[in-house]
Amino acid sequence: DVDLLVAIKSATIDEVKYLVSNYGIKKVGENRVQQLLERYDALKELGVDIHFIGSLQTNKVRQVIDKVKMIHSLDRISLAREIDKQAQKHGIVMDVLVEINSGREESKGGVLPENVEDFCKEIAAFEHINLRGF
Known about the structure:
This protein has helices at residues 13-23, 33-46, 61-64, 77-90, 116-123; strands spanning 6-7, 27-30, 49-52, 70-74, 94-98, 129-133. The chain is an alpha/beta fold.
């Protein structure tokens, strides 16, 4: 099956409501913690699954861990450690996607392709993280 995830970065809640009611959107992606927090209640009322698709700082994990279904940007062990810690506190297992920096851009996050296998082996040790893909 194919799932459609709509990135709602600059969309208003009314625009998101329109997408949900007219197109049956069930999953939305938010890329900023502050924006997610501001819109969380309205998004939950719509009944959509919220995914975090942006770069995530370790000190912000506690703010989103109980609000999102998946984190799409796991790119370092320190972040995995914090996701695992916060997920354990909430009694959940967090689905994650590993971000790969296939373009090798220094200004971008992500694990370099040659390090992905070792990275995945390391995060497999975390009990409260479920690797779902890349």
